Amino acid sequence: MRTEVKALLSKKILSEAKGYLNIGFTHSLNPYSGCAFACKYCYVREMPVQIYKEIPWGEWVDIKTNAADNYRSEMIKLRQRTKPVNIFMSSATDPYQPIERTSNITRRILEEMVDHPPDLLQLQTRSPLVTRDLDLLVTLAGKCRVIVSMTIETDREDIKRIFAPYAPGIKVRLSALRKLHEVGVPTQASISPVLPFTPDFPKLLEGIVDRIWIDTLHIGDGSMGKRSERLRMPQLFEAHDLSKWYERDIHVRVERYFKKFFPDEMVKISKSGAFPSIKTR
């Protein structure tokens, strides 16, 4: 799929956290607009940034070329206050878009974070490209709380191809988690949203994650499932004989199953709030 890439200057890069991010985060940070991974279930498809766009979701990415400069100036101002700065990167895109390999927007932001660290950074991605920045993440983890959260909705490649055919493969995501964990960067597996998986899924995460976050299309799309319904997710599940995985209590069953393999404090469902403070090992 061809992606139209444009460069733009953004007025701000840090946005005050709202909605589902209001669980311990103060700001969100999106280095890009749009997303080339084009996951079919993505709730951003139903947000104004896409609704009023003529180009389909997945076929455009805007690069915020001044993101690092904005971060530096905004953080200097925020540090004049006494309140913490807890950043979620990113809420409406993936900070490791394929174009990041050459644009280095996210890497430049991390370089600025090393000099002007937040109190907390959760870096949310589904791309193994994050391992390119191991050097910066290790350094940053020595200055503030850091966790890299890798979206792994399933352990089945056939399921990934149905719901997220343009996203990186499951094996390379797991490999990235392992590399991050081995160098001491705290890691999270974000099962978001829950998609059909095999009984061995938890075993693949043993020893490479510090915590597990469970989210669903009902409790994680920002509208209690209405956006997912507009995206015709019930019909997509039904078309592949997967409707039992779309039931509203699926998060309860998945949480119960993962707690057979991991301590209770390592596993949390999104509607039950934030994890306690992240600590490096």
How are the elements arranged and paired?
Layout: E1 4-8, E2 14-16, E3 27-29, E4 32-34, H1 48-51, E5 60-64, H2 67-78, E6 86-89, H3 100-103, H4 105-115, E7 120-125, H5 134-141, E8 145-151, H6 157-163, H7 170-182, E9 187-191, H8 201-205, E10 211-214, H9 226-230, H10 233-239, H11 250-258, E11 267-269
Parallel strand pairs: 1-5, 3-6, 6-7, 7-8, 8-9, 9-10, 10-11
Antiparallel strand pairs: 2-3, 4-5
Helix pairs in contact: 2-4, 4-5
Strand count: 11
Share of helix, binned: 25-40%
Strand content: 15-25%
Number of helices: 11
From the alpha carbons, calculate the radius of gyration and give it in angstroms.
18 Å
Structure classification: alpha/beta
Query: What about the largest sheet?
Result: 8 strands, mixed
- The strand line-up of the biggest sheet is 2-3-6-7-8-9-10-11
Taken in chain order, the helices and strands follow as EEEEHEHEHHEHEHHEHEHHHE
Name the poorly predicted regions: none
